[in-house]
Each structure stands twice: as structure tokens, then as C-alpha cells.
Amino acid sequence: MRLLRGNVFTLGQRILLRKRETSSAIIAMGLLTAAIVPMYSVMNYISEESSSLSKLARVGETYLVLSSNSTSVTDSKLNPTLLVKLSAVPEIEHIFPQKVLDAKLNTFSVFKVRLRAVGNLSGFLHWKNARIDGFIADGPGRANLGAIIARLTKVDKNDRVELKISELTFQVEVVGVFETTTELDSEVIIPLESLRDSLTGETSLSLIEFTLKGSVSANEVLNRLTKILPRNATIIKVQQLNAFLEGVNIQTLILINIWASIVYTIVALASCVVVTRVTLESIYEFSVLRALGANREGILVQILAYTMIVATLGSLIGIALGIVGVQTISTILRWIRPHVNINLFLRPEQALQTLLLTLISSFIGSLYPAHRATYKVYVEQLPQI
Amino acid sequence: MSLWGFKYLRSNRLITLFLMLTLLSMLFSVTAISSLSFYKSLVNYLGEEEDIVVLYDRNARTPFSGYVPVHLAERLENIKGVIVSSPEVIAPSIVKGEAVFVRGVLPKKFFELHRIKILNGSIFDQNETKSAIIGKNIARRLNLKLNDRLFAFGVLTESYVELQVRGIYASDSFIDDEILVPLYVGQWLRGINYGYVSFIRFKVNKSLINLSEVFSEVMKEGSEHSSHESRLRVELVMSEAVTNFSNKKVGAEIASRLMRSYIDRYGLTEETILILSTAIILFSSAMIAVASETTVTQHKGEIGVLRALGASKKFLKLDIIIKILTLSLFSSLLGTLLAIIFLSFIQVQERLVILSHIMRLQLDLTLIVMSILITPVLVLISLFKIEIK
């Protein structure tokens, strides 16, 4: 009996696939699927182009440790013992503890400035490739001014200025003016030890800036560091090229997915039409199959299997057609407009995704007409021969 | 004999065809409207008006990646006919984990060139390097309010800045998705020194000077040695003249034309967008033919009865064409309408984002007419081929 059922199934598929409508259904399904390929190719091209941003920059391995609950760097409070723990990590190349405060600078007028106290100030400014006019502050009562703040306040090296932090006022000598082309240029910088001497009792840090050695695996070290850090501290990468590219690509992907969802709905409807048509055109064949012992479930399986075959062949042809189409378009574009540099391509996983989604949509679309077809009493509808 | 009032085409059998045509029309409209909106938004990115000109880096592939000497902005200021020049730096950045474009500007110059409305707060001064004003879209997307502090992390360089939101603005342009900061902050985040900017935008009085005259004036050797202290230099304390820069690298072009030329390098034009959208619907035409044929096959019995009653094949075919064509016209109208509603909805949901900028939907009359007519035309072609048995 099982053998007979198997034979009936094969026979049924042969009959359905040999019908005239099958080829037009495969072509129609293929053309629908082919429409998806250019969209994915364009998306890949956009992603590739945005990735070219990475060629413009060398991605560094600098990180910041900040307290996770702070809304500003001046609010951030880290325990100084954290510095000891981080300093013991051999993969860290440079480490600079910093305390950042809002201050007032008294010259000919009062300027609100940001005061940054940095441990190993000399190493820090060298690491930032600072151009220094004068010397690096190396002790209490000495400060360096960023080029922007120096020009704005008209303060030059060797000038003495008054700094006010909260209610505490102290005099500093500007021993050098530096330029780094970073936000430091608008700040006043002093050695961390000087600040501790001036503000007795204030030992917390605002942030710790560190870099990893070039040869180490950043992910591995960061995982280890995360375990060392207390819960209120967080590590942030300074240069976030990958996050940016990912963000931009996700935006494009959302758009393409919205668009593709319309196409897959059309594919589902197309399957509905294909099944309706094949059941209309195969009344005689289904009657024969029923006569040979196929039950309702058997007919349902026949129709669904037929739809899946049509959808698989259609999507494979469509993907191939799409790939050929986009390649032809990009080649023609390059010929007729040599300044156009377009490279459209489809990733293998996208081809597989298209195939699977087409199959799923087709299956869903064919369920209702296939189910209805099984309830038809084929014998009564047999044509009068 | 008239069959107009005779409903032999059963509505339950027409539903699939109607839905399919509606969706195909919607697909065409969504593809064409969203692509054209993206294209037009990008073209107008640096300014819509014909009197806004950009001094740009000829070697750059995008407006963000080039750099030109900032001292050229000073030269521009001294040319009769140039109303205002605005040096700007575009820095791709990460703010609150999102990809954002930060634009470094000289506020006074920028706001003379670009009309914006401050919704909340105030504009920063060039030397307030810890301040930013943010576009209404980005404020909503990042949930930022007045006086909030934010960290902006560099993408092309290892730098970060902490900024305080001084104001929220609306400009009804792409800039609503950006963060405006003092020029220096843009330079820090972009990783270029104080002598350079991404581009210089300027406004010209076309009755006084033309584009080529402005360009030759700007490019004159030695014109930077002007004793005149420009308004720009007063505002920009870190302005530095760049000496080792080849003038050949710099070009000048009307903003919209420049953006068009950038996009054109990628083969994207209004024509290619329309061709692509039409190709998609033409790809679907086989399915339109199958669906139309299926609809006729479904009504084989009814057609047989009418034939028996004396209706000729030609007459029946004409009647079916008229009825299905009317249906397809309704479905295209509905599809186009649905596409507009759908795109407006996802725009409100801020899902219509590309390169971190929300697209402004731009409806084109030709496109809408095309969208309404293309499906009925395809239906007509496929119905002509059908044989009435």
C-alpha cells in the first residue's frame, strides 16, 4: 500500500509538472525573485562604500574608564585603587588617570574653563602628539594651557593666572601652551599630583584613559578587564568606526527588509494564483489520482509539494537571473559612463536567505487554495468525454 | 447586447488578482518614491538654492571625506558679490551608541547661510567648545533634551568630546538629523588640523559676480596676504593659513549640482531610479499575466454560458478587458495611496533613515501618474493575449 502511495505521489508530481502552466508559473516566480537581487546588491554596494570609510582612518585601541552612572565626565567618580589594578595588566601600554573639574580662570576677565589634572602629564602630552610652546608642567603651581583657551584669554607662557575651583583659589604659572587638535586645546592642564596637593581629601578620579599594546587581542583583554572593574565603572572605546559602520548598515538593512517584505507578500499571493490555476486546470488529473487511492491529505501534499518545486526552481532561476542582470547593468554602466564606479554583488548567504524566504512565502500563500482544492468533489466535475 | 450590468465575473474570484495588482503597484510606488526621495534629499544636502556654492576637494569621493584650506573662506569674504562664506567640517561620530553626523560650523556664518529655527534654548558661540545645538530629529531619536550632556566619539580619529545641549533647532532639511558644534569641535572629531575644513559653502549675489569669476579670484596666488582683517579671522582664533596645498585640488560648484555629481559617480540619477523601479514591475509582469489568465480560466463556466447565449468571443474579450482594466485602475490607485501612507508611516516611525538622515518624502506628479498607469497597462497587454474559449 505504501509502495502504491509512493507511486501515486510520483505520478501526481509528474502529471502536474508536465502541465503547460508549470513553466509559466516557474518563470513568473523567478522574475519576482529576481527583483529582490538588485535591492540586496545595492545594499551591499552601499555597505561596501561606507566600509571604505575605514580606509580613511587607522583604528586605534584607546579606551576610557568612566563611572557608569555619571552624566558628565566631571560627575564621574572612580576609586583610585582601580588605577593600581589596571596598571598591573601587562597588555596595557599607556595609562593616564585624570581628574576633570569645572574651574574659573581669572585674567583680564573671568573665563569658565575645564581643568584637567593628569597623571604622568609629560607622557600624556607626548602621546597626544602635542606641539608645545614652552615646557610641560612638572609640579605644583604650574600649568599648561591649550592653544584655544590661551588665545581666547590672551595668556601666554610664563604668565601667572588665578584658578578658582569651587571656593578654592590658587595661583599657577603657565609654563607652556600646547596644541593637540583635540578637546584638550580648550582646557587647562596640570599634573594630577598638584591637584591632590591643592584639594586635600579629594582622591577620586574622573576617568582613566588607556591604550592596549598593538600585538594583543583587544577582545580578550577587554573581557578580562571587565571582570576586574567594579560594577559602577564602564569601559568605552574612543574610536568607534565599527559601531558607526554597523549603525549605517542597519539603517539600510531596515529599509531593504521593509521593501523585501512587500515582495515576499506578492510571492505568497503569486503562489496562491499558481495553485488556484493548477487546481483548475488539473481537475481530471486529480480525479484520476483520487481513483488510484489518493485521499484528501494526499492531494494536499501533492499540491504543496508542487508549489515547493515551482518555488524552488523559480527562486533559483530568479537568483541566477538577478545576478546576471545586476552584473550586466553594472558593466553597461561602466561602459557608457566610465566615471561611474559601481560594483553590485550578492552574498551567498543572501541568496540562501532569498531562497528560503521565497519558499516560506510560497508555502504560506499556497495553503488556502490547496486546502480548498482537497474539498472539491473531482468525480462530479469530470469533463464529459 | 451589453454586458456592463451583468455581473458574471465573481468578486470572490477577483480578490486575488485585485490584491496582487494593488501590491505590485504599491511595490513600484514604494521603490520609486523612496529612491527618488533619497536622491532628492541627498541632492539638497548642501543647499537647495541656486546661489549657494561649495568650495570642495576635487579628490574626495564624498562631501565628508575631503578637506580644503579654511583660509580660502577668508578670501571669499573679500570678494565683491560674495554675501557670506561658511567653512564647515562634517565628522561622522557615535553619540549614545548611534551613528550620527556632527557638523562643525562658525555659528554666525552658518546661520546667515542656513535658516534654522531654535525651538528651545539658544545658539552657541564659536568659542564655547563644550556646547552643541541639535536638530529636532536627532533630539527625538537620541532622547536628548536641553542642557543634557552627551559624549561624541570620533569615527575617523581617536578623539572624543563632551558636549552640553545648548539648543534644539528645526530647519526642515537634512540638518535636522545632525548635531551642530563649533568648528574646532568638528575638526577634533574629524581629525583634521585647524587649517582645514571639509568644504566651504558660500552665498553669491549672481547679479554682481558669476561662479567662474569667484573661483578665479579665490585661486589667485598670494591673495591670502591681505592686510584686511576679515570678520572670519576675528571669529576664528585658530585660523591658520595652509601653504603646502595645491589649488588644483579645489573646485567650486553650485551645491545641488555638486551633490548631483557625487551621486552620479555611483551611477545614481533620477532616470536610473525610474528605470530600476520600472524594471521591478516589469519583472512582475509575468505574474500579472498568470493572474489575469487564471481569473479568466476561473470564469470558464460563466463565459461558456454567455457564449451559448450568443455573445461573440470578441465581444466577451472586450467586456472582460474593460472590467478587469477598471479593477486594475482601482487597485493601482489603492496601491499608490497605500504606498504613500506606508512610507509616511515609516517616516514618522523614523525608519526611513539612510546615512543617519531621515528621508523627506518627495512626491513627484509624474511618478504618481506613472505608478497609477503602469499596472493597468501591463494588465491590458496580458489580457490582449488571452484567448476566450
Short description:
With 385 residues, chain A is of the alpha+beta class. Chain A has helices at residues 2-17, 20-34, 36-51, 53-56, 81-87, 121-127, 147-153, 192-198, 218-228, 241-281, 283-291, 296-336, 348-374, and strands spanning 62-67, 92-106, 110-118, 131-134, 142-146, 160-165, 168-179, 187-191, 207-212, 233-237.
Question: Layout of SSEs?
Answer:
The complex is a heterodimer of chains A (385) and B (389).
Chain A: H1 2-17, H2 20-34, H3 36-51, H4 53-56, E1 62-67, H5 81-87, E2 92-106, E3 110-118, H6 121-127, E4 131-134, E5 142-146, H7 147-153, E6 160-165, E7 168-179, E8 187-191, H8 192-198, E9 207-212, H9 218-228, E10 233-237, H10 241-281, H11 283-291, H12 296-336, H13 348-374
Parallel strand pairs in A: 3-8, 5-7
Antiparallel strand pairs in A: 1-9, 1-10, 2-3, 2-6, 2-9, 4-7, 5-8, 6-7
Helix pairs in contact in A: 1-12, 2-10, 2-12, 3-10, 3-12, 10-13, 12-13
Chain B: H1 11-43, E1 52-57, E2 68-69, H2 71-77, E3 82-95, E4 98-105, H3 107-113, E5 117-121, E6 131-135, H4 136-141, E7 149-154, E8 160-170, E9 178-182, H5 183-190, E10 196-197, E11 199-204, H6 211-219, H7 231-235, E12 250-254, H8 255-264, H9 270-283, H10 285-298, H11 300-308, H12 313-348, E13 353-354, E14 357-358, H13 365-385
Parallel strand pairs in B: 4-9, 6-8
Antiparallel strand pairs in B: 1-11, 1-12, 2-10, 3-4, 3-7, 3-11, 5-8, 6-9, 7-8, 13-14
Helix pairs in contact in B: 1-9, 1-10, 1-12, 1-13, 9-13, 10-13, 12-13
